[in-house]
Amino acid sequence: MPVPLRSGVFNLKEISVLRTKLTILGFSLLAATVLACGSGESDTAGPGAQDKAETAKTGGKSIVLEVTGPKSADVTYGIGTDQSQDNGAKLPWKKELTSKEAIIIPTVVAQSKGSGKIACKITVDGKVVKENASSGEFAVVTCTADNL
After folding, report:
1. pTM above threshold 0.70
2. Which uninterrupted H or E stretch holds 138?
3. Between the N and C ends of the chain, which has fewer C-beta atoms within 10 Å?
């Protein structure tokens, strides 16, 4: 059935195609805006800017993620949105990462393959920044260091 519009008559298929094209255009513009706003270096010297610059000169932040508990666990870990998995990891489990990013959000999530206590710990540049523990059958523990 035709739908009357100001400039003429369009059928539903034409409107659907137009809507799809406008949606794609909108997402493309959004992506271009995000990329443009995130590029380049900042000239702002806010609090801690000197510390972050010094860290970048020395090769970045050293991040150690650890999970302890009985036998094994499924471990998901990463920094920010970059996540990886190590299913059936033998415990104790340890992963060493390095990041040159000014702001990092390291995360580790583990689910035990049995019962007992399972714990996680995040260390950044030698300082423990987050610890957590959980217990029970197939217990899940999460550590996220979001105040770095």
Report:
1. no
2. none
3. N
**Residue-wise pLDDT tens digits, 35-48:** 655 544 443 333 33
Name the nearest CA neighbour of 91 among 146, 139, 145: 139
Residues 70, 116: contact at Cβ < 8 Å? Answer: yes
Contact in structure between 131 and 119 (CB atoms under 8 Å): yes
Q: Which one-letter amino acid corresponds to residue 125? A: D
Residue type, 111: Q
Q: Please choose, from the candidates 132, 130, 134, the residue with its C-alpha nearest in 3D space to the C-alpha of residue 145.
A: 130
Distance, in Å, from the CA atom of 52 to the CA atom of 14, rounded to the nearest integer, reads: 53
Q: Percent of the chain, pLDDT > 70? A: 66
Task: Evaluate whether 48 touches 78 at the Cβ level (below 8 Å).
Answer: no
Q: Which residues pair with 140 in a beta bridge?
A: 111
